[in-house]
Amino acid sequence: MASDGSLYGDPRLYELAFSYRDIAAEVDVLEAWCQRRQGGKRPRRVLELAAGPAAHAIEFARRATPAMALDSSPAMCAYAARRAKEQGVDLDVVQADMIRFRIPRRRFDLVLAMLDSAGHLLDLDTMVEHLRSVAAHLAPGGLYVIELSHPADFMGDAPKTQNRWRLTRDGTRVDVNFTSPPRSFDPVTQVSMSRISVRVTERGSARVVRDHIALRRWTATELDAAARLAGTLGVVERHGCFDVDAPFGAGDPSEWRMISVLERAPG
Ligand SMILES: C[S@@+](CC[C@H](N)C(=O)[O-])C[C@H]1O[C@@H](n2cnc3c(N)ncnc32)[C@H](O)[C@@H]1O
Fold first, then answer.
1. Is residue 7 situated within a structural domain?
2. Does position 159 have pLDDT exceeding 80, yes or no?
């Protein structure tokens, strides 16, 4: 059975479809970047934006770092809160728009937007407004880590990312097909209408969920410019994968993502 549905409206399915990541290993690297920039200290408080199931925020909470997850989807927020409870960790969950948000009396040492979530910011004005909101919630010297697709995925002739994969967990199998065909990419706005289909096989029956997701494809120089326009934030490191010293832009074989580390000016 096939249905046009909302993948973000089905958090369990979303979580399974993107569970190829080693979340604990990614959090190790996020902590190492913080320690490198913040005098060896681990972050005291973490905010995950567009958090979905909030796997990274939950991992920080498991490590006794107070963590908050923010997402605009009520279904994702409810799911993140439930996952945290099931895993016995404290997690604050806020339903809000990451473009402009206000969390009273909270400053974070580390803010995250993982897995192309910032691709939901579709134009420069929106990105700048978003960065100003983030900067207002960062402690001086705090970091904002943005993980996005590698620009070669939409500008080069050799994409870095695999677009089909299969995962199985607890008897449920998902076959995921995530494509951004060249004709779905608008070269003027740099927005692509990506297509995702997830074939779910469980308890002997199969169904297919299909969705379309509009994602802005950001380049490194655009992000640098957006940070300058936002003020108080600057890009201080950029990496091609979740490895503490992974290079970006050097053609290293390990490079397949664009992970930018922005820092709020100290003081
Ligand atoms: C690709 S998922 C990423 C989820 C999570 N960051 C991860 O690593 O798995 C994108 C998430 O962004 C959320 N989202 C999209 N636009 C948003 C907005 N303007 N403000 C807050 N959340 C948003 C969606 O509800 C969805 O949960």
1. no
2. no
Mean pLDDT of the chain: 93
Ligand 1 pocket test: which of 71, 83, 129 has the largest number of ligand atoms within 8 Å of its C-beta? 71
Q: Is the shortest distance between the CB of 52 and ligand 1 below 6 Å?
A: yes
pLDDT at position 4, please?
A: 55
Q: Report whether residue 76 contacts ligand 1, using a CB cutoff of 6 Å.
A: yes
> What token pair was written down for 205?
């029956």
DSSP H stretches of helix in 38-122: 55-62, 74-86
pLDDT score for 5? 67
Percent of the chain with pLDDT over 70: 98
3-class SS of residue 37: helix
CA-to-CA distance for 60 and 63, rounded, in angstroms? 5
If DSSP codes are grouped into helix, strand and coil, which group holds residue 155? Answer: helix
Q: Does residue 51 have its Cβ closer than 6 Å to ligand 1? A: yes
Domain that holds residue 54: 20-153+219-264
Residue 3 placed within a domain? no
Whose Cα sits closest to atom 4 in ligand 1?
A: 52
Q: Based on the fold, state whether residues 46 and 101 are members of the same structural domain.
A: yes
Task: Give pLDDT, residue 3.
Answer: 54
Measured by CA distance, the residue closest to atom 27 of ligand 1 is: 52
d(Cα 207, Cα 197) in Å, to the nearest integer? 10
The answer on 193 and 95 residing in a single domain is: no
Q: What value does the mean pLDDT take over residues 22-34?
A: 98
